[in-house]
Amino acid sequence: MSSRLQEFCGYYSNRLSYEEVASLVERVSGERLLSDQKIGQIVSNKALEFSQEIYESTRITLAKSNQDVVKVNPTVNIYQPESKEILLFEDGIQVKGQKEQRQARNQLVREGESLSELVTKTPAIITDIVLLQKATGEFEYIAAPIDAKGKDLLTLASVVKAKVIQEYGRKLFH
User: Fold this and answer.
1) Of 18, 62, 89, 91, residue with least CA distance to 165
2) 92: which strand partners?
């Protein structure tokens, strides 16, 4: 599978369901190249790759900075234009978890189960996301890196601290 096809699937997986991306790939290529499960696997593998990069970068940055503390000004005059500030927004997003095994609804109904029995609640997955203003004025999304089971490898606070240090350097320390 080409890297361009993987990138195509990753790009559209942020906007469409995996099933819709599989249909889009088929419509664009003229062949059913990938299933929705394979596209989900591609996205998961890429997330793990990014997570490992974030983990290593954070670990190295924090090791170099030792136990330095980032200065936080508790009062910022938002109406004073020359006041220096870094915007940092945090939000917890919640998505419905995926079931371990999938079965077609029509297959379950044929086995004697009612449609209401099919609707089972899957646990929600909560992910905290931070939006950091970079020195260029642009913004970067930050999340804690995860392992193959979806568990955080580092705290989000440590990743944010490392990103702030990487972006703004030594001028932030006492």
Assistant:
1) 62
2) 128
Scan for tokens 């936080």, then name that residue.
72
Please write the tens of the pLDDT for every residue from 153-166: 889 989 998 998 88
pLDDT score for 18: 92
| 3-class SS string, 29-62 | HCCCCCCHHHHHHHHHHHHHHHHHHHHHHHHHHH
Rounded distance between C-alpha atoms, residue 79 and residue 135, angstroms: 20
CA torsion 130-134-137-138 (nearest 10°) is -60
| Continuous H helices in 14-35 | 18-29
DSSP state of 151: -
Contacts of 63 (CB under 8 A, 6+ apart): none
Q: Does an H or E element contain 126, and which?
A: strand 124-133
* Dist. CA 154–CA 152, nearest whole Å: 6
**Looking at the whole model, is its pTM more than 0.85?**
no
Q: What stretches in the chain show pLDDT beneath 50?
A: 174
